[in-house]
């Protein structure tokens, strides 16, 4: 069992633990409510880049410490740049671009990412949950896109939110900025499961362990195809999915898995 930690000065705001093919990433900056600050974005981006190339990692769990999963962008950092000659335009463009790129890293990651939400997830923090492939929420978790209440519509969180929940649910969250309890988030499809407070990490890791027991090649193919087909017309989506399935059928693990099913035995994955 290997364990690693990623630390950026002045402290370990993002921790990484590896156990049996499952990597758990923990946002550990409760003083800033685990804001997606410059440092946190850099840490997440670097870690996701490393995970993408790490074949020993089969699933990822993303969690946090403190009462807040993530409060979204660090508004203090952003406000401080209003004194720039361009009133912060270049900085805002850069930081929002970096955040969007990090979110897309999660989607592009070959391993599924499961959010374990213990507390409040607001604005880009809610976006982070919506971006993950799966999400387990504590009964204490709350979700909100409150930008409209401070004159800053949650436009980038809207992208992930609108791809997870029905349009009218997304618009209600975006237009009202109300706090959504965990059970309502479950009904809307923003999270997969709600568990008693304190059990969300264990539940997310249990899901990750089940995924880790499957062929990583198959999971990688399936995750990529899922997101690729979402933006296509129905006929194009079927054409793409059919082509993907043909290639998958020719993979060694598909041959092994089908053979094992017919022989009524457990498959032995080679991840190829």
TrEMBL record:
InterPro entries: ClpP/crotonase-like_dom_sf, Enoyl-CoA_hydra/iso, Enoyl-CoA_hydra_C, Mitochondrial_ECH-domain. The keyword Membrane does not apply. One of its GO terms (biological process) is fatty acid metabolic process. Keywords: Fatty acid metabolism, Lipid metabolism, Transit peptide. The keyword Zinc-finger does not apply. GO terms for molecular function: hydro-lyase activity. It comes from the Bacteria. Belongs to the enoyl-CoA hydratase/isomerase family. May play a role in fatty acid biosynthesis and insulin sensitivity. This is Enoyl-CoA hydratase domain-containing protein 3, mitochondrial. It comes from Phreatobacter cathodiphilus.
